[in-house]
Specification:
The structure is a homotetramer. The first copy, chain A, is built from 13 helices and no strands. Chain A has about 280 residues and is mainly α. At the A-D interface, helix 2, helix 11 and helix 13 of A face helix 11, helix 12 and helix 13 of D. Chains A, B, C, D: Keywords: Ion channel, Ion transport, Membrane, Potassium, Potassium channel, Potassium transport, Transmembrane, Transmembrane helix, Transport, Voltage-gated channel.
Amino acid sequence: MNGSLKWKYELHEIIFESDTVKGKIFDIILLFFISLSTLIIMLESVSKINNEIGFWLYILDWWVTISFTIEYFLRLISVKNRWKYMTSFYGLIDLLTIIPTYLSIFFIQSHYLAIIRIFRLFRVFKILKLANYIDESNTMLITLKNSKRKIFVFLYFILLITLILGALMYVIEGENFSSIPQSMYWAIVTLTTVGYGDIAPHTVLGKIIASGIMILGYSIISVPAGLLSVEYRRNKIYKQNTQVCRYCMAENHEVDAIYCKRCGHLLNENLNTTDNPE
Amino acid sequence: MNGSLKWKYELHEIIFESDTVKGKIFDIILLFFISLSTLIIMLESVSKINNEIGFWLYILDWWVTISFTIEYFLRLISVKNRWKYMTSFYGLIDLLTIIPTYLSIFFIQSHYLAIIRIFRLFRVFKILKLANYIDESNTMLITLKNSKRKIFVFLYFILLITLILGALMYVIEGENFSSIPQSMYWAIVTLTTVGYGDIAPHTVLGKIIASGIMILGYSIISVPAGLLSVEYRRNKIYKQNTQVCRYCMAENHEVDAIYCKRCGHLLNENLNTTDNPE
Amino acid sequence: MNGSLKWKYELHEIIFESDTVKGKIFDIILLFFISLSTLIIMLESVSKINNEIGFWLYILDWWVTISFTIEYFLRLISVKNRWKYMTSFYGLIDLLTIIPTYLSIFFIQSHYLAIIRIFRLFRVFKILKLANYIDESNTMLITLKNSKRKIFVFLYFILLITLILGALMYVIEGENFSSIPQSMYWAIVTLTTVGYGDIAPHTVLGKIIASGIMILGYSIISVPAGLLSVEYRRNKIYKQNTQVCRYCMAENHEVDAIYCKRCGHLLNENLNTTDNPE
Amino acid sequence: MNGSLKWKYELHEIIFESDTVKGKIFDIILLFFISLSTLIIMLESVSKINNEIGFWLYILDWWVTISFTIEYFLRLISVKNRWKYMTSFYGLIDLLTIIPTYLSIFFIQSHYLAIIRIFRLFRVFKILKLANYIDESNTMLITLKNSKRKIFVFLYFILLITLILGALMYVIEGENFSSIPQSMYWAIVTLTTVGYGDIAPHTVLGKIIASGIMILGYSIISVPAGLLSVEYRRNKIYKQNTQVCRYCMAENHEVDAIYCKRCGHLLNENLNTTDNPE
């Protein structure tokens, strides 16, 4: 390993890994910069604050952007397969979130693009390795994937209800319910029990139908969670232990069980444990 | 099979089945027409859009309606028992949703009838065969049927609460709570945690009672879901173990049962367990 | 049994029981009168309707009240222990709901008392024998009784949160949060996710705290249901089958199980069933 | 034990314990004073009441404060380790809640400090020994501790959603959505289904996105409760079966376990089951 390679390897360790002291310091600095960047975006949007300290926020934003730009090139240098990094999810996030500030030089009205910088927050997941720690995440994804059709049918059912009730309320109420899409929006606001109150029924029949929607929404509130939880528990159990005792056919052993909790026989006879009672 | 019959049979295959390529193409065209029809109904109701492109929407609607009329007659021709199709759920939907456009020639103010065309959306369920795919739907229907009385009692309980609290608030508040039905409407809005805010208590006593209703509503929010889920799980379990004891014909064994809970005989005699009591 | 007694006995059968044809007809008439009475109360409260047909509602109300008065005396005659009936829950309801109309002769402003007539609705429970049909009701009552302390602590916890947060918001917001009780009312409206919007925070700090309350309320929404459901399931299981197999110690047998589902031994050996496999 | 010590011991029994008659009377008086104090704070904040009987509330407050001051010194005298009491949770509460009234002599505007007196309510938990009675509380604390990371990720997820959606709505809506923090506040109000209605979308795109947030919020409403309940049930089960295997010291057996799941030895050797594998 020559000097150049060693230098690259060390850089890779600092930037991508966090098991060295330097790597951990780098991660903390990164977290600070991401938080700072998010704070700048939020403060810039408050016109009162922007009028007062807008210039300093602009300077800070440039400082943060240049830092992230340098970091992006350091990442590019240290990785072996540059193209793979550039097209990876986090590689794209890294690139996309530094572009808006540079574009603001050429286009004055880059207001909307500035919002993209918020996606830097996704990197927190990677830095804190949250996904690894939560062993639920994988089960959750499988659950969502398996329940895809159920979720689709549930959403189609919601769409159907809101369309039919929206159309009905449009005919009955008129006034605030000025169009079917508007009535559908109201139906969703009511069905989900949000209830802004900017649109509300005024006729007797409208109020009766609205009451029905409210009770319906109130009743089916835990259906989606129920759909997921049933599937989730099934995935969880399957993941844990699928062994069935050969002697008494008892199922549902805990994931760390070696012996059958019902009859005491060894669950997996290929295992030769040292503390075998037989 | 002569030419006429073969032609009818092929037409039936295309229109009613979807296992041939032609049948699948027909279904996709149908889905497109249903979506288009729904979009037309929604856009027509937005006065701004209707003023601008109302004429084109009118033309499009006639095109869709004539297409659906032709499809209806093709269905009538291809089926064996015409009366059975016409009186079936989907047969009635097919007929009902093409009538409003024709009526609009004779009656200018067919505004309300136009809404009926929305029911075309129900056909999406049949086309996508959603009901078949979700093996839950049957269990769900049994659950709803078995819980009928519970649901009725729950709704009667809601009615009773809203009547008593509505009457109480009418006496206490007056003002916005201008009548008992109005107060009942408010009680439902509050109990279901929708909370529009168009009617809200202003007296101290009124606010105390309202707080009570809110906490009550907040507490019983998962009761209906709970009622259903208990029943649902029971139906699910019964469904899973379909074994019937060969000796006493007892059914409804639990999913992990090995011996008949009625007469003690082995349920599945292919299993040779070591701890057999016989 | 002489004529007078037989007449009383027959009257009792008609009024209190519903297994004869006459008894069932009586129940249906009673249900009609209760529904009519409730409708009158509701319509009387709507000033527009009361102005128009108030006189006829007044006549109808007197007719209903006199009918219920006659029924009350018939009940008094037919029962053996009159005092026991008069002091029973339904006896008191029967008496209380006929008094307001008679009082309206002496006191013009009996507006508030009129509301008492609504309690007639409670009798629907008795007529439809709803309580008997739902075998859950008993378990539900035991559950509520056993969870008394938990419910009390939960409500005390809600009171504590609303008091502290209400006091905090009163100090921070001022304006609409004009007093601590007012702020507490707002905290309950927010915590239960009702959100009328008549009182809403306007300061930055107020909005941050309000966001916290909302997320808290959103998170603990299923705690009360959870508290009850855990207790409820426990009661349900205990009620069903407490037998433990003497041979394999398996528990949680279904309520109709005679043999152990695990090892096939007789669960209760005092039972000598005819189809014993041993 | 001399007179002075006996006197202190008796005082300690009355103030800190509640198994003597005197101790119970002391607790009831304390509960009365705490309730009175809370009532004074609430009434003082209502300007109409404060204008009328403000002077009497001021007198009452001084009386309560002096009583609590005497109680504080009695507690200090009766305990053995004064420093330990003073730095304990309840010791600090006791001290903190008497200071504001004394400070009000020197600082006229002690409005904000007065709120601190509300924390006296925490003492109700100790007096009623609520924590002891609910055997759930310990399990609940363990559950919260074990779910710490999950709760953190859930809150981070909420923050991320509200930030991204808030920023999006700020760009789309403008007007009421005057800044990103303001839009985030709206997103939380909507996601938790509170829905004040003081900020509501007016554009078509804004309403579509808002509908999405509502359905999302409506769908994930029972996720936090689900996260806790899974963990909670696990802790509950572990707590129930307290047996430790005599052979391999394995803990955490399921409640229906007979044999150690680690080494296969009988857990409770007093049980002589017939199907013993040894």
